[in-house]
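Dear colleague,

Thank you for sharing your sequence with our group. We've completed the structure prediction you requested, and as agreed, I am returning the results in plain text so they can be pasted directly into your records. Please verify that the sequence below matches your submission; if there's any discrepancy, let me know and we will rerun it promptly.
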Amino acid sequence: MTPKQVLELAKKHKAVMVDCRITDWPGSWQHCSHPIGMLEESTFEDGYGFDGSSIRGWQAIHESDMLMIPDASSAFIDPFYAHPTLVLICDVVDPITRQPYSRDPRYIARKAEAYLKQSGIGDTAYFGPEAEFFVFSSARFSTSANEGFYHIDSNEGVWNSGATEGGANLAYKTRHKQGYFPAPPTDTQQDLRTEMCLEMEKLGIEIETQHHEVATAGQAEIDMKFDTLLLMADKLMQYKYVVKNVARRHGMTATFMPKPLFQDNGSGMHTHQSIWKDGKPLFAGDGYAGLSQLALYYIGGILKHSRALAAFTNPGTNSYKRLVPGYEAPVNLAYSSRNRSAACRIPTYSMSPKAKRVEVRYPDPSCNAYLAFAAMLMAGIDGIENKVDPGEPLDKNIYALTPEEAASVPTMPASLDEALRELEANHDFLLKGDVFTGDAIEAWIAYKRESEVDPVRLRPHPHEFELYFDA
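Please find the predicted structure tokens below.
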């Protein structure tokens, strides 16, 4: 879509505002709105000014002025605002040098795509994330010097099997770890998920499936058709926006927090990926599970760098509450055909060469998609460039390995702090092509330590009172 076509779209829908959105460092949309008369064709070059020091993890106060430049191809009409509003996803640039901002996640994703072409390996990287989430009836939480608590609830929650619920409990609660595919009335959110799908389709997102997920209390999954790296990251931002706002429309709340429930499955984001060149898939071949040698090297790169990748793909302290054995979270770094306990799985639903891909199973949906996708692509490219052998596949239940067998399989980090240390020690593969700059990586590590690792580490945990108060 050209700037002229964007203006025509706004006129067609009688838009009264233009809403400009940027993605902050942790991965959330930030926005500001202008009367539609403030949008002209020249705006797509001149942009809008904003305060970069007020965005998490970005500029210092003495260098706060920045510009957001609308991307005409990203235009859509917001489905939730009361007044017709045109939305434009923006890129961030320095107002003086007019250079793209090194910590703009979209810019990093663009550079990853450019590096793939520059490498000569391929010209297109396709990504297909399967983002899971929970829809709760309510969520309350608070921390202060003298208290800390959370309380979440769901009409589906198995803990409500004995609740009176206004005088009549209609039962059919989802049991722990038994939420995968039950029909209504156990699945109470079919219509809610369908509404989410329909809203996404209005935005041009092609949906492949939706269903209840394994956990109790409204865990769900909606799958989008794969797309190129940058466009898929844009779509995942739209996906989260739609899920949260449709839930809110119905008096509920949605979260992409990886592990909100104790003793039940967390929310992952299995991420399918492949490389193509000149319209041909490069991951199909006559090797293991129908893969090419190039695809196996890509897997080798992913497995080699997974412990450092975790700082982007599993970016919160809560991420590592999910990355534990027994809850379908792949903590062991191995690859396999069909085996869902492996960090890298090769799906076997189709024998078509176009369907050959690798599914990286450890990421979670709290990540910044632009950074996570870019980092995984760079790891895979590094594997191809250096012919990294992924070793032998592990075609058995990894969780059932003997202690001797398990000791030979490397594992994911056990905490965000550990993942950040791995990234500090191993990030040269991300610096190729100036995709990630040293400044960006240092800023990411510093932000995560100061804003997340230390605040969680320093606070007493509610369960510690049960364990130690009578010490």
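Summary note from our side: The chain is about 30% helix and 20% strand.

Kind regards,
the structure core
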